[in-house]
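User: Please look over both lines:
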Amino acid sequence: MVILYDQFTEAFLFKIKEYDFLDMPEEDRINIIDGFMMRAFTEFNKILKRRQYNFPAVKDDTLRQFDFSNEEEFVLEQLEEDIDEIVNIISDGMVLQWLKPFLNNQELLENALNTRDFTTYSPAELLKQVKGAYQHTRKEYNQFIREFSYNHMDLGELHL
């Protein structure tokens, strides 16, 4: 079973409106989006490994795919059932990675700290809104990861 990076990319692009991606050379756009994907996998990978999916071990950056062809039939059947949910969770993680630079924007931070005239259109308010969007996205992403682990793991293995 082969899973293309494009599955994650399409789900991610569906969730955001980033017109700057259209102006970029395709190779740069792919590198940025693939970077978002790999960073999203780092947080979710612990749970995926418990489900016997080792995405980093089977990735092929040249072909832009994950190749699970050598996995056991049982793992492939599980993966076939779980892939839509995994794509959704990883694409949410990609949105989180996409939001980080907006939150960590020095110009917005300087404006927020130096602004005396605080209005609803001020840079401080924009920073507050971006931070709120980031926190909401982070909370939602973590909740999806938790739900996936609760739905697909043996809860008897938990050490409470």
User: Anything to note?
Assistant: The first strand starts at residue 2 and ends at 4. The CA atoms of residues 50 and 121 lie 46 Å apart.
